[in-house]
Amino acid sequence: MTADERIARHRLSVLHHAQQYKNISNTCRLFGISRTVYYKWLKRFEIFGYEGLLDITPAKPNMPNKVPPDKVQAILDYVIHFPSHGPKRIANELSHQGIKISDCGVYNVLKRHGLNRKVSRLLYMQQAMGNVMVTEDYLRTVEPPKPEHIHADHPGHILSQDTFYVGTIKGIGRIYQQTGIDCYSSFGFAKVYPDKTAKSAVDFLETKVLPVYRSLGIPLDRVLTDNGKEYTTHWGSQNHEYEAMLKKHHIRHTRIKPRSPRTNGFVERLNKTLLEEFYQLAFLRKRYYSLEELQQDLDEFMIHYNFQRTHQGYRLKGRVPAEKFLNGKRRLALPQPR
Fold first, then answer.
1. Is there a contact between 182 and 323 (Cβ–Cβ < 8 Å)?
2. When comparing pLDDT for 221 and 316, which is higher?
3. What is the CA radius of gyration of the chain?
């Protein structure tokens, strides 16, 4: 006797008991069912007989809006290459490839495949690459405080700069990154160093940042940093290498309030993006033996970040940073009176 037949015989015995003792309420209490369930069984028995007491297999629902298999495969292939991207980013990037699908459709596909969480997508990427080793450092994510909005009127109005500790690599040692982002356009800059000194901060501006602004004829008006020793002095003397360099180039220096990192939220968000979309994946795919080798791959990613990767924030709304950086116009104004 199958399980379905045992269920049907049990239901039939309930109906017989109620018929024999002429008391439906007592029968329902005795068998632990509601009167609604009893009358549902009775109605099915009256229409279909004994077969009506068998469990009915629900019909497979018709899903007219189900994502086609080719788009599902495109989403899964995309996740392998960019596991840290969410549904909205995936939908936007696929639309640039001619694959039209909503972010809700992407989320439903990820949900059905158990990939709606970032950690699950990272594991899926590892399995697809044949690397199933998972470490705590790999799964650890950084959640910086929600950044405050910084108002910038044009490219070069404000550059946000920060020192980001990347980690330690055997054979190379500690790795720090000098990060900069144009607060008007989100155009980013990054360079790795073995230390976090004023010399590194100066070198970053003079070799990575200022040449780009100069080549486009865009003056850099102001730099926003935290109160780290690489950016300012904490003593009475104002003789600081970084501040002297800014004064030389006629660039204003603004520092955030102590213990208020969210004031510099633009660059903190860029640090998180680089951690999730570059470093976590790069260190899984490749072993680095020098800072120069790491910088080469970082430069390639920054080209992707600035010229190919769409941004979903309120400033760019699906555009790439280079588009706003190159097309931004400065306001015409008279020089400040002396």
1. no
2. 221
3. 31
Cβ count near 195 (within 10 Å): 12
| Domain at 159-327, CATH class | alpha beta
CB 183, CB 268: distance < 8 Å: no
Average pLDDT over residues 215-229: 91
pLDDT at 144: 43
**C-alpha span between 240 and 94 (Å, rounded):** 48
Q: Kindly report whether the global pTM for this prediction surpasses the value 0.70.
A: no
Residues 310 and 89 sit within 8 Å (Cβ to Cβ): yes
Among 67-76, 261-270, 289-298, which stretch is predicted with the lowest mean pLDDT? 261-270
Q: Which two tokens stand for residue 255?
A: 């520092």
Place of tokens 């989100």: 186
> What residues contact 109, with CB distance under 8 A and at least 6 apart?
67, 71, 72, 75, 76
Cα-flanking dihedrals φ and ψ of residue 159, to 5°? -110, 125
Angle at 65 (CA atoms; ends 61, 67), nearest 5 degrees: 105
Query: Do β-strands 222-225 and 159-169 pair in parallel, antiparallel, or remain unpaired?
Result: parallel
Kindly list the domain boundaries of the chain, sorted by start residue.
Answer: 3-53, 69-139, 159-327
Residue 223 to residues 73, 94, 149, 180, 190, Cα–Cα distance (Å): 45, 36, 16, 9, 15
Token pair in block for residue 294: 């790491």
